[in-house]
Amino acid sequence: MTSIIDYLPGDWRDALLLGRLQRPEGPSPILVRNGRVFDVSRTAPTSADIIAAGGFAAMSGEDLGPLEDFDFEVSWASSAGASKLLSPIDLQCVKASGVTFAVSAVERVIEERARGDAGKAVEIRNTLAERVGADLSAVKPGSDQAMALKDALIADGLWSQYLEVAIGKDAEIFTKSPVLSSVGWGDYVGVRADSHWNNPEPEVVVICDPSGRAMGACLGNDVNLRDIEGRSALLLGKAKDNNASAALGPFIRLFDDGFTMDDVRAATIALEVTGTDGFVMKGSSSMSLISRDPEDLIAQTGGESHQYPDGFALYLGTMFAPIDDRDAPGQGFTHKMGDRVRVSSERLGVLENTVTTSEQAPPWTMGVSALMRNLAGRGLLGATV
Predict the structure, then answer these.
(1) Within a 10 A sphere around the Cβ of 62, how many other Cβ atoms?
(2) 3-state class of 234 per DSSP?
(3) What's the CA gap between 358 and 336, in Å, rounded?
(4) What span, in angstroms and rounded, lies between the C-alpha atoms of 32 and 15?
(5) Confidence (pLDDT) at 160
(6) Where are the alpha helices (H) located in the chain, listed in sequence order?
(7) What is the pTM of this model?
(8) Of 149, 148, 124, 151, nearest to 136 (Cα)?
(9) What is the rounded distance in angstroms from the CA atom of residue 90 to the CA atom of residue 19?
(10) Cα–Cα distances in Å, from 369 out to 352, 366, 373, 374?
(11) How far is 97 from 199, CA to CA, in rounded Å?
(12) What is the pLDDT at residue 56?
């Protein structure tokens, strides 16, 4: 059993938190207010309903007691009697934005040119990073300056489809995983067994209501298979959408007077990977260096051309692309089974997961129809906010 307090924001007693708890009767959305846990399933049976309704501070529910009294199990060390904390979203679409930092843009170009071969990456990185990285970080996407840089890079033979979404007017927005497939804190994250070059992507994830308004944020791990996407950008779906490849949590911190989008813009996201082989890797990503404002990315996700009646969760991207050599010089970083991955930020807490293969991760079994049957059987579908 694990105390969740060690994984919460430092000011968690003042935070308004939304999560999902696996109870004996089924998954239930919970609100944490003033340090106490409330099961609000009879008021709003899904996380998506709560986000759509707003008015979180006044939402009623069953008082389950102080959060510090809860013991939560982690999947790799099950404990009898412990509670299971699920991904904090349910019916929301899971979207992601890519190449939103200059460093990540350079790494995507490297993957493309290396054709997914990690051994070729060092030479290409040395060729590209100084010129392209410095130029990318100095321009606003879609600006006249960005278009001039595009022309110069084309002339130099350095242009790439990844640079198009890095500095062009259109952001890269893609569907990360199906509804209800994301995993939460304390669960396994999966990489495909046939991937030999992959990494975590520590990110902030904004949670939006059906109208596209950001209502809160949480931490995320957008697990990435570099070798598969590097062979072809058309393999993005195979590289990104696999069992247990989208982690979110531990809770959504809802926006209020004490936590706003400006706190997201100022966040620093830390990453720590600890392997069973003794390998340790640390790094950080500053949201202040993002090339597109979160509100711009949200606007490009939704709007008149694309509605989300149950809202959506949007990964904002990362500047952290691990290049530390793990096994042999020039081979860079890739996951090994059993890696413990910690994504953390002062005002969002700590998302911790352990790496396994997507094939060996606990299977995803509760889809939309199963959830609806469960909620109907509990008499919750008539709940109104």
Answers:
(1) 13
(2) helix
(3) 13
(4) 8
(5) 74
(6) 47-53, 102-114, 121-128, 134-136, 144-155, 161-167, 226-231, 236-240, 261-265, 294-301, 368-377
(7) 0.89
(8) 149
(9) 10
(10) 29, 8, 6, 9
(11) 17
(12) 86
- Look up residue 51 and give its amino acid: I
Over its C-alpha atoms, the chain yields an Rg (Å, rounded) of: 21
Q: In Å, how far from its chain's centre is CA 318?
A: 10
Q: Which two tokens stand for residue 34?
A: 């003033």
Q: Are 180 and 368 in contact (CB under 8 A)?
A: yes
Distance of CA 179 to the CA centre of its chain: 14
Taking only the tens place, the pLDDT of each residue in 249-268 is 999 999 999 999 999 999 99
How many Cβ atoms are within 10 Å of 147's Cβ, its own excluded? 14
The CA–CA distances, whole Å, from 33 to 7, 27, 132, 284 equal 17, 19, 47, 30
Residues 68-93: tens digit of each pLDDT:
999 898 998 866 667 899 999 999 99
- Give the C-alpha distances (Å, rounded to integers) separating 164 from 96, 126, 133: 17, 21, 14
Integer Cα distance of 215 and 31 in angstroms: 14
Q: How far apart are CA 328 and CA 313, in angstroms?
A: 37
The residue ranges of DSSP E strands in 209-338, in sequence order, are 214-222, 224-225, 246-254, 268-274, 280-286, 312-315
**d(C-alpha 317, C-alpha 331), whole Å:** 24
Helix (H) or strand (E) holding 341: strand 340-345
| CA dist list (Å): 252 to 78, 133, 198, 236, 357 | 24, 33, 27, 27, 26
Please, what's the largest Cα pairwise distance for the chain?
Answer: 64
